[in-house]
Amino acid sequence: MIYLDNAATTKPCEACINATAQTMREQWANPSALYRFGIDAARLLRKCRQSVADAMGAPTDCIHFTACGTEADNWAIFSTAERFGKRGKHIITTAIEHSAVLKPIKKLEEQGFEVTYLQPDHMGRISLERLQNALRKDTILVSIMMVNNESGAVMPIEKMAKLTHRICPNAIFHTDAVQGFFKVPFRANSLGADLISVSGHKVHAAKGIGALYIRAGLKLPAYLLGGGQENGLRSGTEGLPQIAGFAAACTEQLPKRMENIARQNKLKAILQDGLRKIDGVELIGAQEAPHIVNLAVKGLRSQGLLNALQDREICVSAGSACSKGHRSHVLTAMGVDPELIDGSVRVSLSSETTMQEIEAFLQAMPEVIASLQ
Ligand code: PLP
To answer: How distant is the alpha carbon of residue 155 from its chain centre?
Structure first.
């Protein structure tokens, strides 16, 4: 199988699998228990938190584990609204966020918040000017993703966070970095965002684990009430096996991060060059992130392309895996021709993607197109 759908999920690495299995076999105590077995589990939890914090360039205590990127996004948005909703009712986000951000914000809109949706340009980029024009005295939250999961556009988060805090010193800046983690180098300590969401399964860890970075000193209300885990903010016995796997994946990738980004950029350039030479193929969006290439073949439908590629054991996705069956809101906001949207296919790489896989895909594409035409 040639797996080119890494923006949807990645294959867990051996380090993750081993750490998860070892934790399940040997360190399955409750980290809140007061005997040595539990204290050892708590120590492992602390070590894992530190590994994820190191990978995000954050202080250890700022990392809070969640069940997924979606939960981190929901937590960031709902808790900010709860804490600061009396101070102001204005929220800024973009029209191209993942539904894990758009849906919670839509719910707040229904509850009386006013929302400005920043529109992207044709490449999927959001400009600083648009953000600047949207910021108001009563803005309490700005939520802008680091990398768009369909266009591969990379947003200037550091500049956006700085601009937000300069114009609205009390506003909270959240970034959904689920597609940016290990793809766009950043350090939470210097990025300037107050809240950062990441997800394990996009970085070769298991599904069912994510994290929310909360800037030191920012006091948010608890998201889940109960036993007081995660610094009293997100109760529930910690999923130590997934956490250990996530930490192991982070530890393994951190030293190779720049090398992996460079390798993926190189493969992406070869893929884009090859695609440009195939009759009828159009590339869509900025494709600045090292792992995302979006393309369409006019006159062909995504599902047809997907099926024909699948027959050749090649996995790609139709736009975003999370928006199955709907015309992509991201490509629509970018003003892409609806006919192209309906034929769009996302090819996404990881640090494990090989040159042979890219070549096999490029070889298959003209045959697939010819067979469908
Ligand atoms: N945000 C973005 C940009 C994503 O691409 C995804 C998943 O595709 C999510 C959030 C949701 O993450 P999770 O699947 O961990 O809930």
So the answer is: 13
Cβ–Cβ < 8 Å for 96, 69: no
Catalytic residues: 322
Q: Which atom of ligand 1 is nearest to the CA of 148?
A: 3
Q: Largest Cα–Cα distance in the chain?
A: 68
Point out the residues of the chain with pLDDT beneath 70: 319-325
Helices 257-276, 355-372: crossing angle, 10 deg rounding:
30
Cα–Cα distance, 47 to 33 (Å, whole number): 17
Helix-strand-coil split of the chain, %, nearest 5: 45, 15, 40
- Chain length of the chain: 373
The model's pLDDT over 43-72, given as tens digits with 9 standing for 90+, comes to: 999 999 999 999 999 999 999 999 999 999
Please report the atom of ligand 1 found closest to the CA of residue 322: 8
pLDDT at 321: 46
Cβ-Cβ contacts under 8 Å for 270 (sequence gap 6 or more)? 355, 358
C-alpha torsion sign, points 328, 332, 334, 339: positive
Q: Is the CB of 183 under 6 A from ligand 1?
A: no
What are 329's two structure tokens? Answer: 């809101």
Distance, in Å, from the CA atom of 41 to the CA atom of 279, rounded to the nearest integer, reads: 57
Q: Is 149 in the pocket of ligand 1 (CB under 6 A)?
A: yes
DSSP class of 349: -
Q: Decide if 96 contacts 126 (C-beta within 8 A).
A: yes
Cβ burial, residue 331 (10 Å; 0-12/13-18/19+): buried
* Ligand 1 within 6 A of CB of 145: yes
Only one residue has tokens 């988060």, namely 157
